[in-house]
Design a protein that fits this description.
The chain has helices spanning 3-18, 24-40, 45-60, 70-85, 113-128, 142-155, 168-181, 199-212, 227-239, 257-266, 287-294, 300-310, 313-324, 330-342, 346-351, 356-360, 367-378, 382-386, 393-403, 407-428, 435-438; strands at residues 101-106, 132-137, 158-160, 186-191, 216-222, 244-248, 270-274, 282-284. By secondary structure, it is an alpha/beta fold. Bound molecules: guanosine-5'-diphosphate and magnesium ion (MG). The site of guanosine-5'-diphosphate has 19 residues, from helix 5.
């Protein structure tokens, strides 16, 4: 996500960041680099101009250059202004009580609306415990209804559809009645898109809007199309009122332009970011966290939230107790590994950590290696997992065969586990911060 922009901005500020003293010239030079980095990332040129002017004015005023650490101050200003640019404090969906909260998806064909319906449905279900239905109102592409049926089922949402034979406006109205009748908490309405913003599309959208009175109209914008994405959003903003933006396809080689200009150009906030084809690749968009991620300051909050969701406090305490009493077994190790993997590809997770993002570069964390470790542990008997010391030569051979690996791999795992246990004992013994301290308990 934003790798190129992130690299260039960090390079532009790298010099400034490390200096103890700064002159006006240094700031001007850095701002020229920042300007180029933003333009290269396809950020709207008016937005860039305004942005660099504001940063420069702040950096050269308020005694920043005379302060104790001017470099850090300048980086902080850039981070704050990037946050402002992307929408400041951010905004939540307007959830209606009593339901159903009605959300209308709009956007061009292929922008990611149908996918976003599924992702948002899953998000509302998992994060807010909501009972969600999705309505299939794209009747022009035969496959569109089937696609929503599939995505909706994956997301655990009810799919309200009537095939492709009816008028989409009627379907929307029918779906809303049904959602009320079924007492759903939310109804997400998928609509059709065209290749360009045209009158017919806007009329249909306006009509669906009139009949369903959505609490939020979300425009799905394909971040990969860079400047075009912003133009589309601007056109939509002119003719149809929408409330917020879902930026899709922020994975890939998105240059970041859309994320950085859409709020400034349309005045509408980005609510969610879609970062892959899987339903779980979807997160709330937090301008402040995103700015910090782009500047390589790490997105610790998202990381912590992700971890919290996966591991509740009791589990953490159990684990710590086991480590203290030296009862940590290979079964626990396996469970830990699964927990970490549930959070998504390890590489993504590491990238969010401060300072790691850039250094990780193109290093790939080997998921296959983790598969191997898992297979080896799963091929052990419960007794072996509880007490790896009993794993002798013949057991090693059996485990290697069972896991499709070799004796060396098994030996290595046993050895590494022993080292890890030793390390954990030291941690628990107070030589390093305790696990409980690390997980926030006391
Ligand atoms: N890489 C990536 N692909 C996406 C994302 N969102 C949607 N897609 C893909 O983009 C294509 C169009 O998405 P779709 O939801 O059908 O768009 P719609 O025409 O607006 O409904 C599909 O192949 C999706 O799998 C995303 O966040 N990342
Ligand atoms: Mg669709």
């Amino acid at each position: 996500m934003f790798d190129a922009l992130s690299d260039r901005l960090q390079a532009a500020l790298g010099d400034v960041r490390s200096r103890g003293k700064l002159t006006e010239d240094d700031v001007n030079k850095a701002m020229r680099q920042v300007r180029l980095a933003l333009l290269e990332a396809d950020v709207n040129f008016k937005v860039v101009k305004q942005f660099t002017a504001t940063v420069k004015e702040r950096a050269l005023g308020q005694d920043v250059l005379e302060s104790l650490n001017p470099g850090q101050q300048v980086v902080k200003i850039v981070s704050e202004e990037l946050t402002q640019l992307m929408g400041g404090a951010g905004r939540d969906l307007a959830l209606a009580k009593p339901g159903p909260t009605v959300i209308l998806m709009a956007g061009l064909q292929g922008s990611g609306k149908t996918t976003a319906c599924g992702k948002l449905a899953r998000h509302l279900r998992e994060e807010h415990g909501m009972d969600v239905a999705v309505a299939a109102c794209d009747v022009y592409r035969p496959a569109a209804v089937d696609q929503l049926i599939k995505v909706g089922a994956q997301a655990g949402a009810h799919v309200y559809e009537q095939g492709t034979g009816r008028d989409p406006v009627d379907i929307a109205e029918w779906a809303l009645d049904r959602a009320k009748h079924d007492r759903r908490d939310a109804l997400i309405v998928d609509t059709s898109g065209r290749l360009h913003v045209d009158e017919e599309l806007m009329e249909e959208l306006a009509e669906i809007k009139k009949r369903t009175r959505p609490h939020d109209v979300l425009l799905v914008v394909d971040a990969m199309t860079g400047q075009d994405a912003v133009n589309v959003a601007e056109q939509f903003a002119e003719v149809a009122n929408f409330d917020g933006v879902i930026l899709s396809k922020l994975d890939g080689d998105a240059r970041g332009g859309a994320a950085l200009s859409v709020k400034a150009v349309t005045g509408k906030p980005i609510l969610y970011a879609s970062t892959g084809e899987k339903l779980g690749d979807f997160e709330r968009f937090h301008p402040d966290r995103m700015a910090q991620r782009i500047l390589g300051m790490g997105d610790v909050m998202t990381l912590v939230e992700k971890a919290e969701r996966q591991m509740d406090e009791r589990q953490a305490q159990d684990l710590e107790r086991k480590i203290r009493k030296e009862q940590f077994t290979l079964d626990d190790f396996l469970e830990q590994m699964k927990q970490v993997r549930r959070m998504g590809p390890i590489g993504n997770l590491l990238r969010m950590m401060p300072g790691v993002g850039q250094q990780l570069g193109n290093l790939n964390v080997d998921e296959k290696e983790l598969d191997r470790l898992e297979a080896i542990i799963l091929s052990m008997t419960p007794a072996e997992r509880a007490n790896p010391k009993i794993i002798d030569g013949s057991r090693r051979r059996r485990i290697a065969r069972g896991s499709g690996t070799n004796v060396q791999a098994v030996s290595q795992l046993v050895k590494q586990f022993a080292q890890m246990k030793k390390l954990m004992k030291q941690v628990a013994g107070g030589k390093m911060p305790s696990l409980q301290q690390l997980t926030g308990g006391r």
